[in-house]
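Sharing in case it's useful to others searching the archive later.

Someone asked me privately for the predicted structure of DUF4340 domain-containing protein, so I'm posting the question and my answer publicly. Question first, with the sequence:
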Amino acid sequence: MKGRGVVLQGVLAAAGLAAAFFVWQREPVGAPGEVVVLDAPKRELERVRYEDASVQVELFREGQEDGALWLRLGTKRELRANETAEQLFARFAPLRATRSLGVLDAEKLAEVGLKDSPRKLAVKLATGEHAFTLAAPSIGWGSPYLRRETDGHVFLLPPSVLPDLENAAHRLVDRTLHTFGASDYDTLTVTAGSTSRTFLVRARAQRPAELLPRDAPGTPDEPARKWHERVWLLAPAQADFLGRGEVPPGGEPREAFRVEYLRGEQRIGQLTVGRGAGGEFYARTEYTAGWAKLPPWADSIVLDAEKVATGR
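And my answer, the predicted structure tokens:
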């Protein structure tokens, strides 16, 4: 009996050591959000690409200009990415998951939607690219399973990581028209056709700033101020932003009016509004990647631009 007890203890000890070794070999699994899928510093992150059967989205850092983050929809359309995109991009280095499921067999992969899934994710670092497969659409984003292609390990991602990529055209486009604020310029010039008029901007406490014609600085122009307020509040829809190098149907819009902004002698920005081939109006500024289609009511702003430029 004693011999059998010794043998049993030996078997249990060996099993314990094997289990301990197995746990040690596995990736650490801690509290939610503590499982590291891809360990990399943010400075090495260059590009994140998501694609499925119908969507292709990329977020990438523009190194040649100002280090800005850009969004590519499809293969050609490139737009500036917004603050939501910046926050999302940062989450891929390091990329964390809520759980690690280890390596799953074919049956389990099918259960979680990873078998033959068309959804792919690629994270490009300065040191190379890392590929992942995402759960098929039938599983949904509520349980975003991800398979790391290098070793087959499966992870459960937080549900908030990936939906923005799938809906990038609506959630990640930067709709900002200007890089400066309303208090950053002290002069503006309105040009319509061959006529221009320059206004000095005079701030007033807790009231809208006045526009003073430079040729008559003692007489504020209230109609011009109200017109420019509407211009300043123009907000094209996200889906109507064109990318770098794109032109509207029918070709380049014909300029209808232009507003240039100065601080002292320095030109800090401009807004150009043009009429498209179909009669619709587009705008572009010092910041936009290209033209952006304006709402239908913008035609009234265009009609009044000549009055402001001529002072009539």
